[in-house]
Specification:
The chain has 247 residues and is mainly alpha-helical. It has one domain. It contains eleven helices and no strands. Keywords: Membrane, Transmembrane, Transmembrane helix.
C-alpha cells in the first residue's frame, strides 16, 4: 500500500528482491504483488533458520557433530545476509570459506554412510578451490577459460549431490530436509531460462525468479537443526518426519 500511495517501489524492492532498484518500473498492483510473493520464500527461510532444533534435551554430541553444526549455521547465516552485502569481495570470501568448511566437516559425521569419503573431499575441494581460483583471477583482471570454470562448477555440484545422497540414507535427517537441498541444486538451472523469458515483462519479474535461491540456505539450517535430534536407525528418516517440525 505504501508503495502504491508513494508511487515508488524502492523500499519494497529492497526488502523483497534484494537487487538494485529499477526506478523505471511503475508502482502498479501487479508489480507490488509480484514483489510480495517473491518475499515469501525469504521470510520462510528466515523462520527455518531461526526456529532452532526440536524442543527437549539434545542428544550427546561428539566434537565432529558440534563443529559441523556450527559450520552449517554459519553457512546458513551467510546465505541470509548475502543479498544485503554490497562488498562483493567480502561476500566471495565468506562464500568460499563457509563451503570449504563443510567439505572438511561433513565426511566425519556421515561416517560409513558417505562412500569413498576421501574422493568426495577431493571433489569438494576441486569445486570450491576452483571458485577460489576464479575469484583470484578476477581480482587480477584475468578470466578463467569457460571450460575450466564449468569443470569446477560441476565438481561443486557433484559434491553436493553425494552429500545429499548420504544424508538421505542417514537416519538423522528427514526426507524434507534432503528435498530442500535437492531443490536448491535444481532451481538455478530452472530460474535462469525463466528469468530470461520473464525479462521481457520487466526487471521485477526477472528478479523475482531468484527468490527461491534461499532453498539451499533452508537445507543448511535444517541440516544443522536435525543433527540435534536423537539418532534414528538408518532408513527411518521418513518416519521421523512425524516428530520433526514440518515445512
Amino acid at each position: 500500500m505504501i508503495a502504491l500511495t508513494s508511487g515508488g517501489l524502492g523500499l519494497l524492492w529492497s526488502l523483497t528482491l534484494f537487487t538494485p532498484v529499477d526506478e523505471s518500473i511503475p508502482a502498479t498492483w501487479p508489480n507490488v504483488l509480484v514483489m510480495l510473493v517473491a518475499g515469501l520464500p525469504c521470510a520462510w527461510a528466515l523462520w527455518q533458520c531461526l526456529r532452532g532444533p526440536l524442543a527437549g534435551p539434545p542428544p550427546e554430541q561428539g566434537r565432529a557433530v558440534r563443529r559441523l553444526r556450527i559450520a552449517l549455521y554459519a553457512a546458513a547465516a551467510y546465505g541470509l545476509i548475502y543479498p544485503l552485502m554490497s562488498d562483493w569481495f567480502g561476500a566471495a570470501i565468506l562464500d568460499i570459506a563457509s563451503m570449504a568448511a563443510l567439505v572438511v566437516l561433513f565426511p566425519p559425521v556421515l561416517g560409513s554412510g558417505l562412500r569413498h569419503a576421501d574422493q568426495v573431499r577431493i571433489v569438494g575441494f576441486l569445486g570450491y578451490g576452483g571458485v577460489s581460483a576464479q575469484f583470484a583471477l578476477a581480482l587480477a583482471g584475468l578470466r578463467m577459460p569457460g571450460w575450466l570454470a564449468l569443470i569446477f562448477a560441476g565438481a561443486a555440484l557433484l559434491w553436493a549431490i553425494l552429500i545429499l545422497r548420504a544424508q538421505r540414507e542417514d537416519g538423522r535427517w528427514t526426507r524434507s530436509t534432503v528435498r530442500y537441498g535437492t531443490a536448491g541444486l535444481v532451481f538455478p538451472f530452472v530460474s535462469l531460462p525463466v528469468a530470461t523469458v520473464l525479462g521481457d515483462l520487466g526487471t521485477v519479474y526477472a528478479d523475482a525468479t531468484g527468490a527461491f535461491d534461499v532453498l539451499f540456505t533452508v537445507w543448511l539450517a535444517r541440516s544443522a537443526h536435525e543433527l540435534a535430534r536423537p539418532t534414528q536407525p538408518a532408513g527411518t528418516a521418513a518416519g521421523a518426519e512425524q516428530t520433526a517440525i514440518q515445512p
